[in-house]
């Protein structure tokens, strides 16, 4: 086991911290502080972590403070511009961003000089991306004009099952989640919160899910916050060399689950709102069962144990990150949190850097969310594609004893477009469908996780090491594995 030289930062206040890999637990453990600095670091870690826990994890009236904050920001921006009686400030802002991105992508990809910043911004995109960006800009422009009553846009693009679902709830939501989340993420990741809980949860997370204890915080952020927020935290941890390629891939595809508030809306649409507690508990449990299974299947099990900076994670690294269960874990967690808070410096710079880093990602993500989301909804609603695909699932739904097997089989594959779509496909049949069918469809849709209208786009545009083909395979794996478990609970509970 490698022994590191002990460094006393209280005595060496001018020590160049850039020489240290502060994301390595061994390095944090090798740092010493005098009593005053250690105590101040512990207090700093406690206060900032308490703020992070309150913002991201404390439920208040069915929501969390983070949700109220970004939704409040949307409401404020909305109220700034009212056209024909419609408060459209946030929508207009997003329309400008998406149209600008669409036009800029064509110029940058096809007409800009290779040394220009515009070309470099779109350089990594495929030849198809500019057309998707343009589609996103056109879709939101049509929606905006329809909203303010100056143009009657096609129902196919702006209707309740397409544009009306994607733009207000997903595009505008994510447009504000990214910068507001970037403001608060340093509270969670940079001042000891992750380090403290990582030590305590390492013995559970590593053997079960092949991920570090810190990943449990990501999982909680998704369950109580939003899918996008969980993925953004994961991306930051990967790019910060805290997660390896394998760990970040597992966390992003297995733990970016449906938030509590969204889950309630889904269940009410399926007509099982009165069974919220047991339905959500089953989904919560099933999400972790799927994580344990899928992390051991290709393609996730073949992802490299390599950090973004090229450093290879060894078995020794994983062993040294884990401590024996007992008081030593708590002591080590508090010490790492204190050292982390001491070495992270001032909050202002951390917040500014985080927010600035989020802006290059935002235009691409929300523009693709708009185009791919609406195109996916159009395919689901106006074409027989998913009806045809549903026949492949019919033998399984029949074998599992799901009532209304054909309806369930058709609904399940639509989850690739958006998490809400499987339930929407049965919404108009709720009164006729057996409660077992509604429960089954709801639970499976909530643990599929991979969907085009949000998670796929965010994963692929935040630097995570996952390809589109791999995401589609993981979606299929999660769906097929989830179905027998959902059916088992369906028969037990109903």
Strand content: under 5%
Order of helices and strands: EHEHHEEHHHHHHHHHHHHHHHHHHHHH
Helix content: 55-70%
Radius of gyration: 23 Å
Distance between the termini: 54 Å
Largest sheet strand order? 1-2
Q: Structural class of the helices, strands and pairings? A: mainly alpha
Largest sheet: 2 strands, parallel
- Unreliable stretches: none
Let me know the average pLDDT. Answer: 89
State the total count of DSSP E strands. 4
Protein name: YjiH family protein
Transmembrane segments: 41-60, 90-107, 127-145, 166-188, 216-238, 250-267, 279-298, 365-385, 405-427, 439-460, 472-493
Domain Nucleoside transporter/FeoB GTPase Gate: 172-261
Keywords: Membrane, Transmembrane, Transmembrane helix
Please sum up the structure shown.
With 494 residues, the chain is mostly helical. Helix content is 68%, strand content 2%.
Verbal overview:
- This protein has helices at about 25-30, 35-55, 65-80, 90-110, 115-120, 130-145, 155-160, 165-190, 195-210, 215-225, 225-240, 245-255, 260-270, 275-295, 315-320, 325-345, 345-360, 360-380, 385-400, 405-410, 420-425, 435-450, 455-460, 470-494, and strands spanning about 5-10, 30, 80-85, 85.
- The protein is mainly α.
- The chain has a domain at about 20-255 and about 310-360.
- The longest helix has 27 residues, at about 165-190.
- The chain is globular and about 70 Å long.
- The model has no long low-confidence stretch (mean pLDDT about 90).
């Amino acid at each position: 086991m490698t022994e590191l030289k002990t460094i006393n930062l209280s005595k060496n206040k001018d020590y160049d911290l850039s020489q240290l890999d502060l994301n390595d637990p061994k390095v944090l453990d090798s740092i010493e502080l005098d009593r005053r600095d250690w105590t101040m670091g512990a207090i700093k870690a406690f206060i900032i972590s308490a703020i992070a826990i309150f913002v991201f994890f404390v439920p208040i009236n069915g929501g969390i403070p983070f949700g109220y904050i970004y939704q409040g920001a949307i409401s404020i921006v909305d109220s700034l511009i009212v056209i024909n009686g419609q408060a459209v400030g946030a929508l207009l802002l997003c329309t400008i961003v998406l149209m600008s991105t669409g036009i800029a992508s064509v110029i940058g990809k096809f007409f800009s000089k290779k040394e220009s910043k515009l070309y470099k911004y779109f350089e990594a995109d495929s030849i198809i991306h500019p057309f998707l960006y343009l589609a996103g800009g056109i879709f939101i422009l049509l929606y905006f004009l329809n909203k303010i009553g100056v143009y009657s846009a096609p129902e196919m693009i702006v209707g309740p099952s397409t544009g009306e679902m994607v733009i207000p709830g997903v595009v505008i939501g994510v447009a504000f989640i990214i910068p507001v989340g970037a403001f608060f993420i340093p509270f969670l990741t940079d001042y000891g919160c992750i380090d403290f809980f990582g030590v305590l949860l390492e013995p559970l997370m590593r053997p079960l899910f092949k991920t570090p204890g810190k990943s449990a915080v990501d999982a909680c952020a998704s369950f109580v916050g939003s899918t996008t927020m969980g993925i953004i935290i994961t991306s930051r941890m990967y790019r910060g060399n805290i997660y390896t390629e394998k760990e970040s891939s597992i966390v992003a595809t297995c733990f970016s689950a449906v938030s509590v508030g969204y889950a309630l809306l889904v269940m009410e649409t399926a007509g099982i709102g009165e069974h919220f507690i047991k339905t959500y508990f089953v989904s919560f449990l099933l999400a972790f069962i799927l994580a344990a299974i899928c992390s051991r299947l290709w393609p996730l099990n073949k992802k490299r144990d390599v950090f973004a900076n090229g450093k290879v994670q060894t078995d020794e690294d994983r062993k040294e990150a884990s401590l024996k269960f007992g008081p030593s874990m708590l002591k080590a967690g508090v010490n790492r949190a204190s050292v982390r808070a001491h070495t992270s410096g001032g909050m202002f710079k951390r917040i500014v850097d985080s927010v600035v880093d989020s802006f290059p990602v935002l235009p691409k993500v929300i523009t693709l969310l708009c185009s791919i989301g609406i195109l996916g909804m159009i395919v689901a609603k106006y074409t027989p594609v998913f009806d045809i695909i549903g026949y492949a699932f019919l033998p399984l739904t029949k074998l599992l004893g799901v009532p209304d097997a054909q309806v369930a089989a058709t609904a399940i594959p639509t989850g690739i477009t958006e998490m809400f779509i499987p339930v929407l496909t049965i919404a108009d049949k709720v009164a006729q469908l057996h409660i077992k069918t509604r429960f089954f469809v709801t639970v499976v849709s909530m643990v599929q996780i991979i969907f085009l209208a949000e998670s796929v786009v965010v994963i692929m545009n935040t630097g995570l090491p996952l390809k589109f083909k791999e995401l589609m395979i993981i979606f299929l794996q999660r769906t097929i594995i989830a179905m027998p478990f959902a059916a088992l609970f369906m028969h037990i509970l109903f």
